[in-house]
Every structure is written in C-alpha cells, then in structure tokens.
Amino acid sequence: MRLVALAWARIGWVKFQRGENLAAMQFLTSAWLLSQSGTVANRLGQVLEKQGQPEKARHMYAVAVAAGGGDVQDSRARLAKLAGDPTTTEKDLAQAPRSWCKHAQ
C-alpha cells in the first residue's frame, strides 16, 4: 500500500503544480489516508490554502507537524503564517495529534 500512496501523492502533486486543484485534492487525500505521511499532509495543506480554505489548511499543516517527516519546518512556518499569532499556532499544534489519530482509524 505504501507504493500506491507514494504514486498517488506524486500524481496529486503534479496535478497541483499544473493548477488542477480538484484532482490534486483527490489524489493527495487518498495518499494521506493510506500513508499518514507528514509530507503528504503538507502538500494537502498547500492545495487547501490555494483553494481558499485556510482553516482546513491550518489543520493539515498542524497534522503534518505531528506526523513528522522532512517538511516539518515548512509545515510549521505555513501554519504560523495562516494562524497569525503564536497562541493560535500552539493551540492548533496541541490539537493535531488527537485529530490525526481520528484520521488514522
């Protein structure tokens, strides 16, 4: 399943780079559900942000930080930018592990 998730994540990221946001969302969401990868969560957050869904993007960036991986600093920076203040950022990060566990079930 890991290879399937990786393939879907790659396809989703290419779709996003081409401006095909709906298709990107579908592939990246599927990849996230299979992999629980911090990188995939970060990229899903970027798609949500581009689609004008900042609350959902903040959530995915916080989940990306909780999941770990190579994009933790980028996810944290994007979250802080959207949150606007350190208190909101820390609140989002504190809630992320609980919501991430719900996604993993």
Structure, described:
The chain has six helices and no strands. With 105 residues, the chain is mainly alpha-helical. Helix 2 runs antiparallel to helix 3, helix 3 packs antiparallel against helix 4 and helix 5 crosses helix 6. It is globular and about 35 Å long. The mean pLDDT is 92.
Key terms for this structure?
105 residues, mainly alpha, 85% helix
List the helices and strands and how they pair.
Elements (H helix, E strand, L loop, with lengths): L1 H16 L3 H15 L2 H13 L3 H14 L4 H12 L2 H19 L1
Helix pairs in contact: 1-2, 2-3, 3-4, 4-5, 4-6, 5-6
What's the short version?
It is built from 6 helices and no strands.
Radius of gyration: 13 Å
Q: Whole-Å distance between the termini?
A: 16 Å
* DSSP strand content: under 5%
Mean pLDDT: 92
**Major β-sheet profile:** none
Output the number of helix runs. Answer: 6
Which of globular, elongated, flat, extended, rod-shaped describes the shape? globular
Relative helix content: over 70%
Low-confidence stretches: none
Structure summary, number of beta strands: 0
The H-and-E topology, N to C, reads as HHHHHH
Structural class: mainly alpha
